[in-house]
Amino acid sequence: MDDKTASQTIFESRYASSPGEVKGMDTTQLRQNFLIDSLFVPNQFKWVLSFFDRYLTGGIMPIDGPVTLDTPDQLKASYFLERRELGIINVGGAGQVIADGTSYDLDYKEALYIGQGTQAIQFVSHDANAPAKFYLNSTPAHKNYPTRKVSRTDAEVVTLGSMETANHRTINKLLVNSVLPTCQLQMGMTELKAGSVWNTMPAHTHDRRMEVYFYFEVPEGQSVCHFMGQPQETRHIWMQNEQAVISPNWSIHSGSGTSNYTFIWGMAGENLDYGDMDFCAITDLK
């Protein structure tokens, strides 16, 4: 197959917002600042740069042969991962990622970590009629760690919640420091059981890290209401399938769906302590 470099990379920057600013935002402004409503454009990379920890959220859906990761001018780098690391989770058909000549097959819900300093990266779908959808998160990095694939069986798996509280869920820790070394990027996937609709409840914040949620496996005709803001000044954003939302360090990040669903969480910041959370009692939320 002929190599195809993305003819256009869609790149958008989002400024960091303070709690005071968010308190005065209407629905449109909240969505403009935090919602990422489309990530998978055929053969084109879509990136949203958040100024919270310079976190990049992106996606690529290769159709016509391999698509090469180019370097947006906004990064001012010789190549994309010159000063960054990259996490990938496939949420579509079977595909392959080629990193500096080494190929990694990724099936549905499998992950790949690519370390800082990797120069040539390509993405390809095995079947153009059932294309891969590579969900991408990238953060600044100071050191090279080995590129590694993480399958479902490699993940650290935790089951939490209960049917009685409608939050029975399985957390798959994929790209976290208990599984493999990274500079600051952490990614994983939470799957809600049938009949459960709440995620991340009781809610929490963590001033040391920001976070991005990507909701998928939301059934047709259903939605997820994502909650954000300070615990005593919450706001909400209605989310559809395959949409992402930026969560500032100072904000809760929780959701409730009209059906069960799955979401990918990605984090970056000052530490790699997954358990570093400042919890808020459910009865204290406002």
Automatic annotation (TrEMBL):
<dbReference type="GO" id="GO:0045490">
    <property type="term" value="P:pectin catabolic process"/>
</dbReference>
<dbReference type="Pfam" id="PF04962">
    <property type="entry name" value="KduI"/>
</dbReference>
<dbReference type="GO" id="GO:0008270">
    <property type="term" value="F:zinc ion binding"/>
</dbReference>
<protein>
    <recommendedName>
        <fullName>4-deoxy-L-threo-5-hexosulose-uronate ketol-isomerase</fullName>
        <ecNumber>5.3.1.17</ecNumber>
    </recommendedName>
</protein>
<dbReference type="InterPro" id="IPR011051">
    <property type="entry name" value="RmlC_Cupin_sf"/>
</dbReference>
<comment type="similarity">
    <text>Belongs to the KduI family.</text>
</comment>
<feature type="binding site">
    <location>
        <position position="204"/>
    </location>
    <ligand>
        <name>Zn(2+)</name>
    </ligand>
</feature>
<dbReference type="GO" id="GO:0008697">
    <property type="term" value="F:4-deoxy-L-threo-5-hexosulose-uronate ketol-isomerase activity"/>
</dbReference>
<feature type="binding site">
    <location>
        <position position="206"/>
    </location>
    <ligand>
        <name>Zn(2+)</name>
    </ligand>
</feature>
<keyword id="KW-0479">Metal-binding</keyword>
<dbReference type="GO" id="GO:0042840">
    <property type="term" value="P:D-glucuronate catabolic process"/>
</dbReference>
<dbReference type="InterPro" id="IPR027449">
    <property type="entry name" value="KduI_N"/>
</dbReference>
<keyword id="KW-0862">Zinc</keyword>
<dbReference type="InterPro" id="IPR007045">
    <property type="entry name" value="KduI"/>
</dbReference>
<comment type="pathway">
    <text>Glycan metabolism; pectin degradation; 2-dehydro-3-deoxy-D-gluconate from pectin: step 4/5.</text>
</comment>
<dbReference type="InterPro" id="IPR021120">
    <property type="entry name" value="KduI/IolB_isomerase"/>
</dbReference>
<dbReference type="InterPro" id="IPR014710">
    <property type="entry name" value="RmlC-like_jellyroll"/>
</dbReference>
<feature type="binding site">
    <location>
        <position position="211"/>
    </location>
    <ligand>
        <name>Zn(2+)</name>
    </ligand>
</feature>
<keyword id="KW-0413">Isomerase</keyword>
<comment type="function">
    <text>Catalyzes the isomerization of 5-dehydro-4-deoxy-D-glucuronate to 3-deoxy-D-glycero-2,5-hexodiulosonate.</text>
</comment>
<feature type="binding site">
    <location>
        <position position="253"/>
    </location>
    <ligand>
        <name>Zn(2+)</name>
    </ligand>
</feature>
<dbReference type="GO" id="GO:0019698">
    <property type="term" value="P:D-galacturonate catabolic process"/>
</dbReference>
